[in-house]
Amino acid sequence: MRKTILKSSLLIGLTLLGISSLTNNANADKKQTKNKALQEIADDHKSDAGRYFIQDYKTNTSDNLTPDNNASIDLLSQMNKLWQPGSDWNNGTRLNTKILDENINLSDKIAKERTKSQEDAAWLDDKNDMDYSVQEGLGNLTDYFRKQANITGGYTSVPSDAENKDYDTNWDKQEVTGDPNSTLGSVVKLADTLKDGNYSSSSSSKKYFKYPRPFRWDGTSVTNAQDNGVIIPTLKLSAKADPVNDYGFPSGHTNSSYLTAYALAYAYPQKFQQLLTRASEVGNNRIVAGRHSPLDVIGGRVLGTALAASILNDPANKQLKEDAYKQAQSVLKSSEADDNDYGVGNQKENAQKYNYRLTYGFSKIANSKQIYRVPKGAEVLLETRLPYLTDAQRRAVLATTELPTGYPILDDGEGWGRLNLYNAANGYGQLVSKTTVSMNAKKGGYNAKDTWSNDITGVGKLIKDGTGSLTLSGKNTFQGGVAINGGELNAANASALGSGNVINNSGALTLSSKQVTVKGSYQQLDKGTTVVAKKGRLIVKKGATLGGTLKLNGGEFKNGDKIMSYASHKGKFKKVTGLSKGLHIVYNNHDISIARK
């Protein structure tokens, strides 16, 4: 355990942290009233210094080096619960030895277990500009993007002599970052504005916290530290010999990678989660490289998220972000290469990796408590990914998909650390009240068709309006029921419709799961349509009131198939389509079946 240079102090007691009276997540959630939950989501919470980050982000300059005068340092000041900065890199005070030891040990473990291919990936992310690395989150669109952005540079493999030669980085080279006068010029400019802006650096925070990089924890000079097995062999020559002003927290590469990812994700939200996954991979590769610790990487992500939201909210960038979105939709969406894939793994694997890297499994320093906390302006990060929602609704999505309290560094006063943008892209995590979703298919993109894949809880009701199509694919338990007033609601999971009543007034309820259950009653009026896909079946636990149209898709229904069951029923469908010739539906006491005429 490499911690000899750092002064120890007593581990902060749990009672000092004020957690003895906190209840657990589930109990606190049950006690909350609906109105209180709504108010918490609507409220803007200020930082510990009494500021809103998006309003004060321009204080992040080299002239401001305290939490009081620099919003970025204030944002990351939860680190002060773990570590008290000293006058230099080797005399800080360890306040929470448990967490800091976990940080050191995890860094050691990753360094010990890394593979050659992981080392090579870490070298590439070290030497290439963050724009170039994060672009790979576009998957099969990457090469097309680079061609349209006039990107011709970038390292694509590790040179054979990298252990003996310190190669230059590609940072800020136009042939790597992109041409602002290219077909994708506005997208390039947006990425540059976020990543390379005057207030986007992590340098001031590094200088304040003075937290050592992993390869300095032995307390030796960099020459000896190069041989301690932490830094990958191909990056040993890149390590600075002078430890002064070469600190670890927060990770600058991670900060820059998230700034780039949010810019590209704003312009092309079709790859939102893939781009964030790639940003998280860049951060993780800093640990693999031995250049940063997990706490450094977490701090870089939090900083990058807050800075991205601030810059996207800045009125000076309003036209640029609109131009970048329009441009990306025009140029990229027309490409046949867009397969909505990203090579680090499938969506489930990406989600697991991303969610793990939010906390790296650190022990909590406080018990969880369900307190909704969404920073002022954070909703802009979902502006193009969930365009059919209002700002207030996007805030609700962020609130109901955020991390619980208690993790090191993440409980800043505004809530930036707890945001989980990957999960937020999957829609609501909870319905705390009546929620109306109005989609406009004529606008195209996510306005026309989207999927919510979270397991949605809560007491609220979902009302589907407009002309677009919304798919629910999670194992949902929300209690308020469903009303379909327009467009399509696609139930792609047996419990997609929650646990309440369902009424179809004038839209289409499509059953794309083999079996879909309505745990309450089901009512369809004359303007409504129930669409049953291949061999599907709607199970209504209570009574069914039928009218409107029944549409059977797939052509696989045959004599004897049951397409609906219920405790009782009233009325009949006015129109039935999709049955093969010679078949009709029969209304029985507790089900509807298909029979020969």
TrEMBL record:
Q: Which SUPFAM superfamilies match?
A: Acid phosphatase/Vanadium-dependent haloperoxidase (SSF48317)
Query: According to the lineage, what is the superkingdom?
Result: Bacteria
- Tell me the ranges covered by the Phosphatidic acid phosphatase type 2/haloperoxidase domain, including all copies: 188-312
Q: Which UniProt keywords apply?
A: Signal
Q: Which InterPro entries match?
A: Autotrns_rpt (IPR013425), PAP2/HPO (IPR000326), PAP2/HPO_sf (IPR036938)
Tell me one Pfam family matched here. PAP2
The signal peptide here is 1-28
Protein name, UniProt field? Phosphatase PAP2 family protein
This chain's source organism reads: Nicoliella lavandulae
